[in-house]
Amino acid sequence: MARLLLDTHTLLWWLDDPNQIAAPAREAVAEGENEVYVSAASAWEVAIKSALGKLSAPDDLEGAMESAGFAALPITVRHALAVRTLPDVHRDPFDRILAAQAKVEGLTLVTRDARLGQYGAAVMPA
Fold first, then answer.
1. What's the N-to-C CA distance of the chain in angstroms?
2. DSSP codes joined into one string, 22-80
3. Cα separation of 4 and 35, whole Å?
4. pTM, rounded to two decimals
5. CA 60 – CA 58 distance, rounded (Å)
6. Number of domains, the chain
7. Which domain holds residue 98?
8. What CATH number is attached to the domain comprising 18?
């Protein structure tokens, strides 16, 4: 059984057109025995960027996540503090918290952003 954390773009692709996701990652997300998580940080990022017109997302993102069988992953103090231990790969706060959450929780981050592997989190190419 795998424990996966979807990057924001992977979540949106899954909800809109899963064929945009690489086949191995798509199969892992679809595998019913795997645990698939979506961070509160991704919902926050979607809310900000959709309000600015930078992306399109379902109006009921939480309902869409639940329908897909994805579990919500809250941001904890432990996650936030783990960010300080990450190397300076880039400054995107959403990517940094996702990497910290993946490391703290022992999750594999499903992402197309190859730089996120430089944070020391397990990564599956999306």
1. 18
2. -HHHHHHHH-TTSEEEEEHHHHHHHHHHHHTTS----TTHHHHHHHHTPEEE---HHHH
3. 6
4. 0.96
5. 5
6. 1
7. 3-125
8. 3.40.50.1010
Residue-level pLDDT at 48: 96
Per-residue pLDDT of 50-66, as tens digits, reads: 999 999 999 999 999 99
- Reported as a single tens digit per residue, the pLDDT across 20-57 is 999 999 999 999 999 999 999 999 999 999 999 999 99
Dihedral angle sign, alpha carbons of residues 54, 115, 120, 84: negative
- Cα–Cα distance measured from residue 90 to residue 103, given in angstroms and rounded to the nearest whole number: 17
Given the DSSP bridges, would you call strands 35-39 and 71-73 parallel, antiparallel or unpaired? Answer: parallel
Query: Which pair of tokens denotes residue 65?
Result: 């996540």
Helix pair 8-16, 23-30: axis angle to 10 deg: 80
Residue 90 has pLDDT above 90, yes or no: no
Asked if 54 contacts 111 with a C-beta cutoff of 8 angstroms, the reply is: no
Question: Coil, strand, or helix at residue 122?
Answer: strand
